[in-house]
Design brief:
By secondary structure, the chain is α+β, with helices and mostly antiparallel strands. It has helices spanning 2-21, 116-124; strands at 26-27, 37-44, 50-57, 62-71, 74-83, 87-89, 93-108, 135-150, 156-167, 176-188. It has an eight-stranded antiparallel barrel. The longest helix is centred in the N-terminal third of the chain and has 20 residues, at 2-21. Mean pLDDT is 76; it is low at 21-31.
């Protein structure tokens, strides 16, 4: 399973390298004027979790994104920096490939990852066992993706991210790690 994702990420990295080596099909003037500040949402591949976000692109091929959502019972606020190598301008579609990464602020509720049997075993063995409490954990993410905009609808874009998301969280060292595909949709206000 991990090989599948690693090979997909490798293919995308090769595409990024090819994109930077073949500038004749790429727009040299940066993103369209109507794609600077957008709001949208991102869903896991099977729509098991959705977050809402805001995305801002600068003229220097840098982008910033902040989101808010519920994931597996806790609140998550991811903050990412995005970088696009090239802007692909084809006849019907404008494509913006990018790589990104950042941190996520996670508020994990009381009892996430709690196993009462482990606690009883610890207590019987003379070890301390404290019930879990709500906690704040910092996670991280790294991904590659692309945003597609049909020229007939210049303010609306759809896209996908492939990457790895990790939260060192929970009680007694439980953590959450996910490698997968996320689907995006954004509406650009400006």
């Amino acid at each position: 399973m991990k090989r599948k994702y690693l090979s997909t990420i490798s293919v995308l990295l090769v595409l990024f390298v090819c994109a930077s080596a073949a500038p004749s099909i790429f727009a040299q003037d940066g993103p369209p004027e109507s794609q600077q500040i957008g709001v949208g949402m991102r869903a896991d591949g099977f729509v098991s979790a959705v977050d809402f976000n805001a995305r801002i692109w600068t003229e220097m091929k840098l982008g910033f994104e902040i989101g808010f959502g519920k994931r597996h019972g806790w609140t998550e606020v991811p903050v990412s920096v995005l970088y696009t190598i090239a802007h692909i301008d084809t006849e019907p579609v404008y494509i913006r490939p990018y790589a990104g990464g950042g941190i996520s602020y996670n508020r994990i509720p009381l009892g996430w990852g709690y196993n009462a049997n482990e606690c009883v075993s610890d207590w019987q063995a003379g070890r301390e066992c404290e019930p879990p409490t709500a906690s704040t954990k910092i996670g991280g993410q790294g991904f590659v993706g692309a945003e597609f905009t049909f020229k007939a609808f210049p303010r609306l874009s759809v896209g996908t991210d492939i990457g790895h998301w990790r939260v060192p969280s929970g009680w007694q060292g439980h953590s959450f790690s996910e490698t997968g595909i996320k689907l995006n949709i954004h509406y650009y206000l400006k």
